[in-house]
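Example record used in the benchmark description.
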Amino acid sequence: MRAALAVMRAQAKIIRHDPWFLGVMFAMPVVIMPIFADVVGLGLQSSGFPDATGAEVVVPGQMVLFSFFVAGSVGFMVFREHGWKTWDRLRASAASPSSLLAGFAVPWIVVHVVYSLAVLVAGALLVGLRLNGGSPLAVLMVLVAYAFCLITLMLLATASFRTVNQLNAVQNVGAMVFGGLGGALMPLEALPEWVQTIAPASPAYWAMRGHRSVFLEQGGVSDVLFPVAVLLAVGSVLAALATVRFRVDETKEFFA
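Model output (structure tokens):
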């Protein structure tokens, strides 16, 4: 546990001294949200939500989409240690493979949740996102579960790939594919029927299902228990697979 905490502190220090990526990832959804809110709002009004403004779907959707890119940073931190030639120092420490994974994962789960909250607050200020009777605790539960699922997914990808370009491809393509399938780019009911059929395979689907329950349907904690349970269950399986696949003696290529 002490070894894992030491890795966490080191990662937190690196994150604190390199905030520009998070700034860009915050700015992009902030720019996009006002562009699509009105159009999505009209679609929701015609679908049985007469009081919808569009913010109820657009803001969580942009947050769910771009937080996938943020989650990918945990993998880049691992590859960066190899690029900096400091990985052998971690190997020589008392940290076990599972401790190393926890040390990288926990700071980025926290960052992921804080980032997601910041995007939601920006949505409230810019396009009028409101809870309208929904539960703030339910929102937080979905954010934490989604962060856990995505971070463990990216750790599994990190354990499986040898080069940073491979990880980058998974992050970029995965964000668009999973986000699109899950209804983060547009409301799920506007997508083809075959997409709606396979949408539950995407973590974004369950995150959007939870957020729609709260922001669009004024749901509470009980309404998000199932999507939260799915995200936590999938994240637990991914964490177990990442632990099994992770090899501290494997060489990772940080530079192309």
